[in-house]
Amino acid sequence: MGDTTIGSLRRVADVPERLFGSFVEHLGRCVYGGIYEPGHPSADEDGFREDVLDLVRELGVTCVRYPGGNFVSNYNWEDGTGPREQRPVRRDLAWHQTETNEIGIDDFHRWSLKAGTEIMLAVNMGTRGLKAALDELEYVNGAPGTELADRRVANGIPEPMDVRMWCIGNEMDGPWQVGHMTPDEYADAVEKTAHAMKLAESGLELVACGSSSAHMPTFGTWERTVLTRAYQYLDFVSAHAYYFDHGHKTRSREQMQEFLAAAEDMTTFIDTVAACADKAREANHGDRDIALSFDEWGVWYSDAWNEQEAAWKAAAGEGLHHEPWPKAPHLLEDVYSAADAVVEGSLMITLLKHCDRVRSASRAQLVNVIAPIMAEPNGPAWRQTTFYPFAEAAHHAKGDAYAPQIDSPLIHTEAYGDVKAVDAVVTWDGESREGLVLIVNRDASHAHDVSIDLSSLPGVAGEASEAKAEGEIGGACVKVTHAEILHDDDIYRTNTAAEPDAVTPQPLDMTANG
Ligand code: AHR
């Protein structure tokens, strides 16, 4: 018996496929030099890197949000359509880069077919709005026979793309967002846009912007205002959260401890937004829940970005026209440690434990930019430490999610008080009778021994005799086919292009007993 026990499972909900989504933004080298690099040895006939496509499939991504992010709020979707040589080159105000428009929705649709992923499209509510959203919808999903749908056909895509999930803007509460709005302004805009989009296609699934983080001054008020006003047209509200080790330069144990417990913040975030959505339903006498789309989550060393932005501004000097507008610059290329992978695993566990309300999620982002996959210019692609917890869940978390009762020693954090050292989730597919147990040790100082009792899974207990020869966990009929651990004695160890397999999952010794 270890010092931690995991058992007594409570069913949460079926695991939605879209929980394993990701995010591709026109930002730095996510698109250009990430998914697309014509001239790369692995580039296919469309210029897409096949080595990256292979890793995307290996990661198990189901749905990809596109094209932003902050980028979308000053983007003209039409710029990325039609013959490439005629597409305009523009300045992107969000990331201060030059956008060549070599890739647009048509190209991304082709990429998605190759990657085997659904697309979730975001529309520009910053410099544009309702009209541009309706035009884009007609272009993307329209049956041939109308002007914009026929333009798509002429551009080589005869069939409607059938994009179901649409985000109405991005982080419109954030003062950094081009065209940002007050809660009332956005509530008005989203209500009208969602109404019109559903007139065009009633089967769409529409996502309103929620707060950019749980620490925004309007957090809560924003959700209540927006969801109450537009309740009848909305299916999802977005949530975004990034975490980083504030002490990664000083390496203090206390700061690391707090970072490892970051999922506590995500839990509060989810509970608060779900409560706001419930209030909006009640106010509208509705009978349907607005779900959460956690469409940006992950570890992001955002202080590094803030320093970079400040350095640019200083370097730009006083003169007009001297600011840099680089093409596909190296931006937000965080290299993740073993500790970062623990946090991402813990965030994934949190999403699964709340999948009754979180019905879609996108880990931000996919390639090069705060990403699990890195692609060297004209060189190899490799997996970051954070690749592994995502891939494990995406491939094996099927059927229903169960939140276990966990008895574990407590660890103290400044931000969240005393929290359990160990967190876990269980999934179980009753049909295939296959399951997954994801466990994370959030204790920065100690290892913990864990005992797992799966006897409360439906159809598992009571068949123990059949499984004797295979080995049992907690007296139930379960055979362990595969057990792995992601660990490094140096919690700051990373993978790199030169040493891509420094931190990888290793076989885990498990004792099965009756
Ligand atoms: O993912 C990076 C950025 O983070 C996105 O563009 C924005 O939506 C968020 O602030």
Automatic annotation (TrEMBL):
Keyword list (alphabetical) reads: Carbohydrate metabolism, Glycosidase, Hydrolase
Gene3D superfamilies named in the record = Glycosidases (3.20.20.80), Golgi alpha-mannosidase II (2.60.40.1180)
Q: Which GO terms describe its biological process?
A: L-arabinose metabolic process; polysaccharide catabolic process
Statement: the UniProt record of this protein carries the keyword Hydrolase: yes
Q: What top-level class of enzyme does the UniProt entry assign?
A: hydrolase
Family label: Belongs to the glycosyl hydrolase 51 family.
What do we know about how this protein assembles, alone or with others?
A: Homohexamer; trimer of dimers.
Which named protein is this? non-reducing end alpha-L-arabinofuranosidase
